[in-house]
Structure formats: structure tokens, C-alpha cells
Amino acid sequence: MEIGGIVRNSFVDYPGVLCAVVFTTGCNYNCWYCHNSHILHKKGEVREEDVLTFLKKRKKFLDGVVVSGGEPTLQKDLMDFIRKVKELGYKVKLDTNGSNFEVLKGLVSKKLVDYVAMDIKAPLNKYEMVTGVTRPLKDEQKSIEFLLTSKVDYEFRTTYSPDLNLQDIEEICKMIKGAKRYSIQKYRTVEYNKKNMPEKKREEMECAGEIAKKYIKEVLVKGI
Ligand code: SF4
Fold first, then answer.
1. Which helix (H) or strand (E) holds 56?
2. Which DSSP string corresponds to 162-202?
3. Is residue 202 included in any domain, yes or no?
4. Which of 84, 122, 141, 193 is buried most, with the most CB atoms less than 10 Å from its CB?
5. Domain range for 136
6. Domain count of the chain?
7. Residue to mutate, 21, 33, 71, 161, ligand 1, most ligand atoms under 8 Å from C-beta
8. How much distance in Å is there from the Cα of 99 to the middle of ligand 1?
9. What is the number of H-type helices and E-type strands within the chain?
């Protein structure tokens, strides 16, 4: 698997689980605010066998592994890698944009993932604006439907980017009505953003959270 980086310890990337985070390279979206753009184009930066050796050694201290990206479901050997991680006794969380429904379904149905965090970038009519790519979005919609009815633990999450407004948050919430959990993440201005746009104010973040609570029981507003 093409791995662009690893965070060795994290308390914040997997709810309730002390974990390591493995970042795969490559993504089929081109979000202008991507905070991981520096690892998307790396090749052979971190060897898979070194990651597995590290995980073997750290089993006493860590309980989980987050496979993030980039978009991990683009990796041909993702299932093999996760299987090896599971064999070491770790819980696995997958971070995905939901664009490869069959891969997601395969991992969940084989019980290879314990938690899925799926990004909802925007209401459907604004996906292209936020992700920078034109796609039919059928997979994303199937992934949403699948998670809403699946037994796997999951959350949906949205970076509340300046492209979006409160009405958009409401549209997203209608799409995922009844979901277990929804996180709204504050967009942060960083120097390598491809657009220069202001961050949302705290009041608007809180308002987005209140809107989401009309549709979803557990709502987390992060980064304010
Ligand atoms: S989906 Fe995630 S990794 Fe891919 S471009 Fe967007 S923010 Fe970056």
C-alpha cells in the first residue's frame, strides 16, 4: 500500500481509542482546503512493512489504527493491509470520502473495519465547487444509505468551508437524517489553501450545530 505518513499516537482521531494514524497517498477529490495535500503525491515514503513492524511493537500502548488519506479506498491492497492490522489485534477506523461504495461495503461486510468516518463535503449541488472534481456522486449516495442502515459504528462529518452556508448544512443533514453521529469541523485558513477565504465565526459554527440537532441525535461541533 502507498503510505505517505504516519502519526504514532493520537487521542483525537478515533473516538475513545488511543490510536496510530496511517495516511495513504492519492485522492480522487481535489478539495481546495485539503490539509493533507502535502502527502497526496508522495510515493514510497513509508514502507508498509515498517508500519506493520511499528504496530507490532506498539500493541501494548495502542488500541486502534486509523486508515486515513488521501482516499484509502483507492489503494488496491487496502483490504490486505487492514487484514494484517486486524491480525495484530487492533481496532480499525476508516476515514473515507465515500466515493468507492463497493470497497466500503466489502470492508464492512467482512468485519474488517470497526468504525467508519465518511466526509460529506457539501449538499449534492455544491460538491463540484468544494471537491474540484466532476463526478456522478452515485457511490457517495450509496455509501450514505449503506452506513445509515449498517450495524457498523460510524459518523458523518463535514468541514464547514466558506463555500457553504447554514442552508447547506441543513441540506446535508436532511441527506443523513437519523444518522448516529455527525461532526461539523471548523475550516482553518492555512497558507497553502488554494483559495483565500475567511473562517466561520464561532456563532455560525454553533448555529450549524443547532440546525444539525434537528435531524441527528449526536452532533459534535469541532475546532471552535
Ligand atoms: S477528500 Fe480529503 S484528502 Fe482528498 S482532497 Fe479532499 S480533503 Fe484532501
1. helix 48-57
2. TT--HHHHHHHHHHTTT-SEEEEEEP---TT-SS--PPPPH
3. no
4. 122
5. 3-159
6. 1
7. 71
8. 11
9. 8, 8
Q: What local confidence, expressed as pLDDT, does residue 197 receive?
A: 85
Residue 24 falls inside a structural domain = yes
Q: Which residue has the higher pLDDT, 192 or 97?
A: 97
Question: Which protein residues touch ligand 1 with a CB less than 6 Å away?
Answer: 27, 29-31, 34, 36, 69-71, 97
Nearest CA to ligand 1 atom 7: 34
**DSSP class of residue 54?**
H
Residue 36's CATH number: 3.20.20.70
pLDDT tens digits for range 110-152: 999 999 999 999 999 999 999 999 999 999 999 999 999 999 9
CA of 25 to the centre of ligand 1 (A): 10
For 101, the grid coordinates are: 461504495
Ligand 1 binding pocket mutation candidate from 22, 29, 126 (most atoms within 8 A of CB): 29
